Amino acid sequence: MQALVLSDIRQFDLVTLDDPVPGPGEVRIAVTQSGICGSELGGFLGMDGLRAPGLVFGHEFVGAIDLYGPGVPAEQRLPLGALVTANPLRSCRTCPICAAGHGNVCPQRQLLGGHVNGSNAGLVVVPATAVHRVDHLADPSSSVFAEPTACALRAVGRTRIAAGESALVLGAGPIGLLLLEVLRARGVEQLFFTERVEGRAAAAEAGGATRLSDDPVELVHQMKEFTRGLGADAVFDAVGSADTRTAACLATRPGGGVCFVGLHSADGMLPLRDLIRREIACTTSFAYSPEEFAGAVELLGRGELVFRGEVVRAGLADGQHWYEELIKGHPAGKVVLQPSN
């Protein structure tokens, strides 16, 4: 099969690899679509501490059932050729963290395309239990957005935001756009966002959100103007820089909530005394549960959630080019690679 392999920092090569063989309880999928995730850009640059040369990236994908390994029960076997996606996050399911329902932060967790070869290839192998059939849905191809949508579902669920309230999303990249979609679907009436890449703002505005300044001081001023001097009921930082983390705290009303989602910077300073005096509930959100992933597949497939960003589709041979373009700031909401089997 053909695969896009990270041969060195900032360098992908399109190579021919042996077809992977599914082991016990596994299934092989012929990949038709594989999205580039923002987290993979750090791996391409050698900055994420997870991905290393020799790896096939890719964890957002759609494909067709190709081959089963031994020991897959009959009830888990879909017909060969069935169109599917798969939850790319694997937890051990046995440790105390998993037992408490926090498999998304299991110390032994593995990510497809992070710890093991992923979907930027003609074929990918995953556990049969991770597979979700999508060809019964009105829009099966939308499942390429299931993984980031599941992240957005979890982040919104981690806050106390309610229908009729106001929310601010910092950053209108893929996660930011999907946060706005989930908030809209939950009945949040006033939606605001910031975005520095000019070409991305239109997608957020198309869904009814109002763009505010990305300057922290002006942002806080504008947010209070729209909310009678109070601030947003909930703020979601989908960027993760020092500036956006601070701005998120300052733009929230007394008694409101902040959810930190973005991972851009490893560290940052928060105005803790101000947060305490205004009793701001700060939380974090990482990845998703199996239930949230399944929910994302269904909501996208039924058209209840829509990815409004620009989608660029390209072959695996163009992967190097598109990683470079995204790092330069190309406004595409999502680049989807299409392997040729």
Strand content: 25-35%
- The SS-based structural class is alpha/beta
Question: Mean pLDDT score, rounded?
Answer: 96
Q: What does the overall shape look like? A: globular
Task: Write the topology of this structure.
Elements: E1 2-8, E2 11-16, E3 26-35, H1 38-44, E4 60-68, E5 83-86, E6 89-90, H2 96-99, E7 110-111, E8 123-127, E9 131-133, H3 146-157, E10 166-170, H4 174-185, E11 190-194, H5 198-206, E12 210-211, H6 216-226, E13 232-237, H7 242-250, E14 252-260, H8 272-277, E15 281-284, H9 290-301, E16 311-315, H10 319-328, E17 334-338
Helix pairs in contact: 3-4, 3-9, 6-7
List keywords for this structure.
17 strands; six-stranded parallel sheet; 341 residues; 26% strand; alpha/beta
How would you explain this protein's 3D organization?
This protein is an alpha/beta fold and 341 residues long. The chain has 10 helices and 17 strands. It has helices at residues 38-44, 96-99, 146-157, 174-185, 198-206, 216-226, 242-250, 272-277, 290-301, 319-328; strands spanning 2-8, 11-16, 26-35, 60-68, 83-86, 89-90, 110-111, 123-127, 131-133, 166-170, 190-194, 210-211, 232-237, 252-260, 281-284, 311-315, 334-338. The strands form 4 sheets. Strands 3, 4, 5, 8, 9, 16 and 17 form a 7-stranded mixed β-sheet that branches. Strands 12-11-10-13-14-15 form a 6-stranded parallel β-sheet, sandwiched between helices. The longest helix has 12 residues, at 146-157. The radius of gyration is 20 Å and the shape is globular. The model has no long low-confidence stretch (mean pLDDT 96).
